[in-house]
Write a structure and sequence with these properties.
The chain is α+β, with helices and mostly antiparallel strands and about 325 residues long. About 40% of the residues lie in helices and about 15% in strands. The strands form two sheets. Strands 4-1-7-5-6 form a five-stranded mixed sheet. A two-stranded antiparallel ribbon has the order 2-3. A hairpin with a 2-residue loop joins strand 2 and strand 3. The longest helix has 16 residues. About 45% of the residues are buried. The protein binds magnesium ion (MG). Magnesium ion binds next to strand 1 and helix 9.
Length: about 325
């Protein structure tokens, strides 16, 4: 959902995260988001009738944690209320028929998702009519180069590495990249044994410093027995969103003696991208054999190596 946010709206989240970090807050609260929105858009500030001094006062009114030290990003997730604000902002853009979420829609989302902030605004000097008008008639959001402009966006690129290996046995399904490949052997595993999906999970979790697949989906949990690994990817995509991470690129190598995987790559990219809610063009897949060497070369196992890059707002 964050990829719908214009660069300006993402900068507002960046400021909010900075404020939360500065105050030692465990989560990015809706108050921090409001501060970020007001700080980002001078025109909106004027439209509401809030002075720069009042904005500074608002910032300094935030509670400071007694932990007494700034939290180092990227370890600050959105609070539940803030996640609701993000959804409500997208809903405000939908109502306008806008594919993008700009700062005005963000403000509408803030007041829909956290109505108590209305009082914060009026206390800072905003007039009720100005607030109502800003919500009822948000400025249209149009900024070009939203996707291509990622490298310009506030935030930092983080990378993660993922590796997985599964044994191959006769009489099992061979699932790779969310696609069933016709073959006389399949991978042994607690879930569907999708070596590529598992390595992608670990690479994404690594990029976001959120641990590993075994912690989030333990193979001792009967819930995941026979589970489609695409479900893991869907869970991880949601977790990334909560932690303000946006997938930039995934690059993978699958090492497997047989069968030939290349013809299945388009279907795999489509399945993986759908689960991760990204564009298939953001995924690059490569296949290698092991030249007949060791267990992979003898066709007893297959493995995958993945590097994932995310933009951490
Ligand atoms: Mg695995």
């Amino acid at each position: 959902m964050l990829d719908r946010f214009t660069e300006t709206a993402r900068r507002a989240i960046f400021y909010a995260r900075g404020e939360a970090a500065e105050r030692g807050s465990e989560e990015i609260e809706a108050d921090h988001l409001l501060y970020g929105v007001l700080k980002t858009d001078q025109a909106l500030l004027e439209r509401l009738g809030i002075s720069v001094d009042a904005l500074q006062e608002l910032g300094s009114s935030f509670a400071k944690s007694d932990r007494g030290r700034p939290v180092s990003p990227p370890g600050i997730p959105l609070s539940i209320e803030s996640r609701n604000v993000i959804s409500q902002s997208a809903a405000a853009a939908d109502r306008q028929g806008s594919p993008q979420v700009g700062v005005s829609q963000f403000l509408a989302g803030l007041l829909a998702g956290a109505p108590r902030l209305r009082k914060v605004l009026t206390d800072a000097g905003a007039k009720v009519e100005s607030i109502n008008s800003a919500i009822a008639n948000p400025e249209p959001a149009f900024e070009t180069r939203v996707q291509a402009g990622w490298e310009m966006a506030q935030g930092r690129f983080c990378t993660g590495i993922g590796y997985d290996l599964h044994r191959l046995e006769a009489g099992r399904k061979l699932m790779i990249g969310g696609v069933e490949i016709p073959f006389d052997k399949g991978s042994v595993g607690h879930s569907d044994g999708d070596v590529l999906a598992h390595a992608i999970c670990d690479a994404l979790l690594g990029a976001a410093t959120l641990g590993d697949i075994g912690t989030h989906f333990p193979d001792t949990d009967p819930k995941w027995k026979g589970a489609s690994s695409l479900v893991f990817l869907e869970h991880i995509a949601a977790m990334l969103g909560e932690h303000l991470g946006m997938i930039s690129q995934i690059d993978a190598v699958v090492i497997c003696e047989r069968p030939k995987l290349g013809p299945h790559f388009p279907a795999m990219k489509h399945a993986l991208a759908k689960a991760l809610k990204i564009d298939p063009a953001q995924i690059n897949l490569k296949a290698k054999t092991n030249e007949g060497v060791d267990a992979i070369g003898r066709g007893e196992a297959l493995a995958a190596n993945v590097v994932a890059t995310i933009l951490q707002i």
